[in-house]
Amino acid sequence: MPLNIKVAQESDEALALMLTGSIDSDTAPELEATLADMVHPQISYVGLNMAGVTFISSAGLRVVFKVLKQMKAREGQLLVTEMSPRVEKVFEIVKMIPDLSIFASHQEMDDYLAVIQQRESDEG
Amino acid sequence: MRLNVHPADPVSYVLVNMAGEFERHNVGAGVVHDCQVIIDEIYANLRAHVLPDNPNLTWTITLNPAEDHLEMVVEYPGPFFDPTRPLPVGYRHPAVRPEGGMGLYLMSELSDDLKHTYHRGVNTLTIRKELSSNYKEHSLCR
């Protein structure tokens, strides 16, 4: 069960990733490295589409929590969409759900990120 | 089913084999996921705390599906090492808790019984997961 990470959207202030597969103790470091590489200091919105995530353990939760902490420190947000009930259950057990901005669909998250990008270009 | 796990085996090797066995016994996907999380946490613990001193360690996992429960037995030889201790006295959010403990908390929350024994140089972890109607389920509304 490998982890596939695709960039769904990228701008100066926002990054959205499409995750597919398993975020386990073997693959979580890949996600951590990708985020470390792509989350530049100016990024304050990170979106994770988890529609294709079939498994997550504490190794994956730690990576998600790390980026959540980063975004909070930047007064930004971590956006999550399309978690399966079994993945959501794991987040719920460790009480992380209230800290996440959970979108019902990828489209909804895209629309929100588009607003952020529009704001960037208006300000830039 | 009994599976021997060698140090170079990826987690996915264990998780996929477990899923196959449980699916043969018509265990629901949610329960399979819970069991896989428990085993990933145990494997991560063994890698962090046992394998550095015993890099050739082969451990075993035995899956015993029954009608009303699942039992998973993990055995690893070597010095006493109990990954179920210390059980947290109540979970704290990652923002306020010290490093570590999240995996242990998940293991204890996702299992109905988790027991470690040590006998003649072999650590044995026995995990029980109920399948009956009162099986411990976390409600997203709780």
UniProtKB/TrEMBL annotation, chain A:
Keywords: Membrane, Transmembrane, Transmembrane helix. InterPro entries: Anti-sigma_ant (IPR003658), STAS_dom (IPR002645), STAS_dom_sf (IPR036513). The chain crosses the membrane at residues 43-65. The keyword Zinc does not apply. One of its GO terms (molecular function) is anti-sigma factor antagonist activity. It comes from the Bacteria. Gene3D superfamilies: STAS domain (3.30.750.24). Residues 4-116 form the STAS domain. The keyword Membrane applies. Belongs to the anti-sigma-factor antagonist family. This is Anti-sigma factor antagonist.
TrEMBL record, chain B:
It comes from the Bacteria. Residues 21-129 form the Histidine kinase/HSP90-like ATPase domain. It holds the Pfam family HATPase_c_2. SUPFAM superfamilies: ATPase domain of HSP90 chaperone/DNA topoisomerase II/histidine kinase (SSF55874). Transmembrane segments: none annotated. Coiled coil: none annotated. This is Histidine kinase/HSP90-like ATPase domain-containing protein. It comes from Marinobacter vinifirmus. The lineage of its organism: Bacteria, Pseudomonadati, Pseudomonadota, Gammaproteobacteria, Pseudomonadales.
